[in-house]
Amino acid sequence: xxxxxxxxxxxxxxxxxxxxxxxxxxxxxxxxxxxxxxxxxxxxxxxxxxxxxxxxxxxxxxxxxxxxxxxxxxxxxxxxxxxxxxxxxxxxxxxxxxxxxxxxxxxxxxxxxxxxxxxxxxxxxxxxxxxxxxxxxxxxxxxxxxxxxxxxxxxxxxxxxxxxxxxxxxxxxxxxxxxxxxxxxxxxxxxxxxxxxxxxxxxxxxxxxxxxxxxxxxxxxxxxxxxxxxxxxxxxxxxxxxxxxxxxxxxxxxxxxxxxxxxxxxxxxxxxxxxxxxxxxxxxxxxxxxxxxxxxxxxxxxxxxxxxxxxxxxxxxxxxxxxxxxxxxxxxxxxxxxxxxxxxxxxxxxxxxxxxxxxxxxxxxxxxxxxxxxxxxxxxxxxxxxxxxxxxxxxxxxxxxxxxxxxxxxxxxxxxxxxxxxxxxxxxxxxxxxxxxxxxxxxxxxxxxxxxxxxxxxxxxxxxxxxxxxxxxxxxxxxxxxxxxxxxxxxxxxxxxxxxxxxxxxxxxxxxxxxxxx
Amino acid sequence: xxxxxxxxxxxxxxxxxxxxxxxxxxxxxxxxxxxxxxxxxxxxxxxxxxxxxxxxxxxxxxxxxxxxxxxxxxxxxxxxxxxxxxxxxxxxxxxxxxxxxxxxxxxxxxxxxxxxxxxxxxxxxxxxxxxxxxxxxxxxxxxxxxxxxxxxxxxxxxxxxxxxxxxxxxxxxxxxxxxxxxxxxxxxxxxxxxxxxxxxxxxxxxxxxxxxxxxxxxxxxxxxxxxxxxxxxxxxxxxxxxxxxxxxxxxxxxxxxxxxxxxxxxxxxxxxxxxxxxxxxxxxxxxxxxxxxxxxxxxxxxxxxxxxxxxxxxxxxxxxxxxxxxxxxxxxxxxxxxxxxxxxxxxxxxxxxxx
Lengths: 518, 355
Description:
The complex is a heterodimer.
Chain A (H helix, E strand, L loop, with lengths): L11 E12 L2 E12 L3 E6 L5 H8 L7 E6 L2 E3 L4 H6 L2 E4 L11 H5 L6 E2 L3 E2 L1 H14 L15 H14 L4 E5 L7 H16 L3 E5 L3 H7 L2 E6 L2 E7 L5 H9 L17 E11 L5 E11 L3 E5 L6 H8 L7 E6 L2 E2 L5 H6 L2 E4 L3 H5 L6 H5 L8 E2 L2 E2 L1 H14 L16 H14 L4 E5 L7 H16 L3 E6 L2 H7 L2 E6 L2 E6 L5 H8 L7 H6 L1
Parallel strand pairs in A: 3-10, 3-11, 6-9, 9-10, 15-22, 15-23, 18-21, 21-22
Antiparallel strand pairs in A: 1-2, 1-4, 4-5, 7-8, 11-12, 13-14, 13-16, 16-17, 19-20, 23-24
Helix pairs in contact in A: 4-5
Chain B lengths: L1 H23 L1 H16 L6 H26 L7 H17 L2 E4 L2 E3 L3 H24 L5 H20 L20 H4 L1 E2 L2 E2 H19 L1 H11 L1 H6 L4 H27 L10 H11 L11 H21 L3 H38 L1
Antiparallel strand pairs in B: 1-2, 3-4
Helix pairs in contact in B: 1-14, 2-13, 3-8, 3-11, 3-12, 3-13, 4-5, 4-6, 4-11, 5-6, 5-11, 8-9, 9-11, 12-13, 12-14, 13-14
């Protein structure tokens, strides 16, 4: 399909030709051509490690190309730094937030571009006022003077978008902007995108949520292993086409059940309560139990208290109350090591912050929770450790040249496999997974779903938290829905999606924004 | 055709490889350089007697630097070690001279081994207090150990009201007459303290590389939250490193008191800074997660040889300080250059592979 017919409506703002980018460990881009059309949403899609983020970093001036050229409005450009790109009207909202938790929302929005009085002191009032105006435009009830660290990830993401908007960007790059947003926040974002489009802003939209892409996009470009495998207007594009272009032969299969009987109850939580800092409860008298071989999906909106509940199980909140039972015996250990020894393992939501030690190797990361297995007395057998690490790297099908490569050289999906491998190496009876497929491509997702099925069939009980309705419906043997810290619904595997969503909605939706703003 | 491109691709790689190897072994290179330089420049530098003398000077700093390496790898710092050296030296002096007075005109006297054990325990105790302040009360390591720096120094002065404990020769009746041997004795031709340093170095290197504890120390410094969620008992790890650092300080306190046969409460001032310098020179990263015991030892030798060599050359002590400072700064600058080059070499390799 030739894009010529749309040139008048959506002129090409920026184009990249024959881009090659080489990183230590990978060739991220191989001969890539990419156009950004103004006044339109240019969707970029591909598996993890396909090179989307790299391409965007090149456009935003964070990275420079190894080979190839960039033209902006017909002239050749080479951005030496992010500032350089910003000066040329390019704004980017990264997948990983680049914010300062100890500063206020306003200070974050104007970081390094503070409005000055007489060129000397920061005009605090202007910061507050302009941030307030931006927040109104974004329909968010966020006070500019709130310390950023008190906001939820979803709200922080909106602050990041505000930051890009404050720079009057002509080209706005959104890298997975909805991965942490609630349904309501996503609607707000889409409205903002529509508004920006009419103003002639060229938007690059990167996401793993395919329905979303089809809804919001005007043009689509698919990347696979650093190469373009499809580029066209959104007309006539459906999920099957995208998936085909993204993964070639592979397909998404998470509904393949492995029929097996559940064992007896292995884990039970009784009346778990976690008080919230400003009064009220993050987790409110929650009780649940799970049987061996059962997959329990914990569904709910952002801030429903699901992650916090998992953290309570891992003894991360000393002020939580309630009782946990493992095989009928109460767990009283007050530290993670004790809980791991009792047969519980956690795959945390935030890989970078909680899951991995970035400066360590793949081997050291995957064995970190299980070092006692290789130690006799004080002595650690490096040979045994290496063998076990190699075994789990193979079992989890982690793509890495050598186990001694740094973990940071791996793509998101492979890093997640290492985190899961680390949890499995401890030999858990109950596996807690917090958003196990967050920020992971379809291929890796399918592998992880398959892995979860296999583990359940082997008799491991799995409790997983997700915000993806399709995922919770397809994977769970039992669905537990949380809202406002409470258990608000329990469903079997053939649950009606509508009733699951209804259960997840908080009782007083009008108050929701206020609550989250606190 | 292929052979030409291959050769063209291989040559810069191997050149970079050499440079990288040189940079990686920079502390060792620096050590060889200072050795070579002073062999020519300073008379009598290359003699066994001088080598042993320098080693004895280096050992004092090396013990402390090993302790600090662990602390710094966890992302912390221990500023109190110099003061703890003074305090533990005073405790040793007190025990040798007076024993413990239990009232009624009685006192308990100890032999050398018991004195050493008590002094070591005292060092561990002080480190433990640092650890509790940092893990339990969440005091920043810099502040907690800065406070301990003053407290320990004050306590050392209080011990004798500022005076020196002289003539620590011990008493054969109590079995403490061997006390001076800790710092001055020889065994198989080498000073006892050098044997102690060898043992401690091997032990510490073993902990760092071959025990779960060592891995936990690196993990704590690399990502404390991630380590905790992986089941690393971060508080215990930190307790260990500060207690270990205290133990190292106690050993140094013992050695100095024994060497001088006297304990002075001002002993050990600024020792902590020398020890930090040795660790950093040896490649330990102040932001945590990175560092090696062997690197620290080499770093301590570079600093030690530099100061002793300059003294033998008759360079003024003012210039010595300037040179020492420049060497430390240069080490860190080279460290940064190495990481940049390493990234570039890896990149170059990927490019050649992708062709």
